[in-house]
Design a protein that fits this description.
- It is a single chain.
- With 350 residues, this protein is α/β, with parallel strands linked by helices.
- Helices cover 61% and strands 7% of the residues.
- Helix 11 packs antiparallel against helix 12 and helix 13 packs antiparallel against helix 14.
- The protein has a 5-stranded parallel sheet, sandwiched between helices.
- The protein folds into 2 domains: 126 residues, Rossmann fold (3-Layer(aba) Sandwich); 192 residues, Hypothetical protein af1432 (Orthogonal Bundle).
- The chain binds fe (ii) ion (FE2).
- Fe (ii) ion (FE2) binds next to loops.
Length: 350
């Protein structure tokens, strides 16, 4: 398919020349004003724009600015045609958005070469961007596959834990979305952090793979030794994820967030949690959010040694933990939106 060149020119001699030379190689559309050009680009995106600079200078519609602000059009190379070009003009034109220049009178061979080169460059950049995009997609797929396969291990080991992990990850997502909406912790909760946090939330109890059956699957309350052993799932999980991080070496930030959640989701705001007894802002934000989702699910779920608490009772207990067990800022958000967790739980239990 022929490349499409949009020519903006009102000089009859230039138009004739451009038509004769470019018309043989490219599909060309010729308009006499930038206003007309804007109408053309709406439906027929050109591969390159060739514009007489005098039309830009007298134009009040700020053609170039409109093109450069448009997501679909801003990468189109724009070449200016000018009667004379001094160094200062070139600098100014570059600032305006020109990628190259043609001097009048137009030399056929030079015009063809400049247009060909700029189209090749545009295609090269497009191809390069496509490859980068594909590569990033592959990396994303691998990250997701890694997380899901690790999650499957937890699920295989203990389906009860698997289900708990899935629900908790969803609660973390709901809480985090609300924190983002309210602009709380916005320096930390970047788009990338949130994305990595939500997907690695599935790994927060991965250390339970290392807990023996007698403890993990015990149909009753744990004695103090067993509880101490169970606590190790935090450090075991962090160690396992650290090993993967060390092997991957780069692009590993997404697992760092997962590792922090695995390591610190049983820490408490007042420093009475485990395994490190961290307090307040020393506990990574992802783990502080996870702590709320984790406790909500633990309390609302039946265990062999306890009944499930109602949503209302659970909310009451969690609100009491504001500033002791949990980050007060997160609890303020939880207080507003806890009903969403209930709705989600009911939907997942269906
Ligand atoms: Fe846990």
């Amino acid at each position: 398919m022929k490349n499409h060149i949009l020519v903006i020119n009102n000089n009859l001699e230039d138009i004739e020349k451009i038509k004769n030379i470019l018309g043989k190689v490219y599909r060309i559309t010729i308009v006499k004003s930038t206003q007309k050009a804007l109408e053309v680009v709406k439906d027929d995106t050109p591969d390159l724009v060739l514009v007489d600079i005098s039309l830009i200078r007298i134009s009040e519609d700020e053609f170039i600015k409109i093109i450069k602000k448009n997501k679909k059009l801003y990468k189109i190379p724009i070449i200016f045609i000018a009667a004379s070009l001094r160094y200062k003009d070139e600098e100014l034109n570059m600032e305006l958005g020109a990628i190259d220049f043609l001097r009048k009178p137009i030399e056929s061979e030079i015009m063809l070469k400049i247009i060909k080169l700029n189209l090749e460059l545009k295609n090269y950049i497009k191809d390069f961007e496509y490859r980068i995009h594909e590569r990033n997609n592959r990396i994303e797929d691998l990250k997701n596959a890694l997380i899901l396969s690790l999650y499957e291990l937890v699920e295989c080991r203990d389906s009860h834990t698997g289900e708990h992990v899935k629900r908790t990850a969803k609660y973390v997502e709901i809480l985090t979305e609300e924190l983002v909406k309210e602009g709380i912790f916005k320096e930390i909760l970047t788009k990338e952090y949130v994305k990595d946090m939500i997907r690695t939330a599935l790994l927060h109890d991965i250390g339970k793979i290392g807990i023996d059956d007698a403890t993990l699957l015990k149909a009753g309350s744990l004695d103090s030794d067993e509880f101490e052993f169970m606590k190790l799932h935090t450090t075991l999980g962090a160690k396992a994820l650290q090993k993967i991080i060390d092997e991957i070496k780069e692009e590993n930030k997404f697992l760092n967030i997962g590792k922090d959640m695995a390591h610190y989701h049983h820490e408490k705001w007042d420093g009475t949690g485990y395994p490190k007894g961290l307090s307040k802002l020393d506990i990574p934000l992802c783990a502080r959010i996870m702590a709320v989702g984790d406790v909500y699910d633990a309390l609302t779920t039946m265990r062999p040694y306890k009944e499930a608490f109602s949503h209302e009772k659970t909310v009451e207990i969690i609100l009491k933990g504001k500033g002791t067990s949990f980050d007060p800022n997160i609890i303020e958000v939880f207080e507003k939106i806890h009903i969403k967790l209930k709705v989600e739980k009911e939907a997942m239990n269906k």
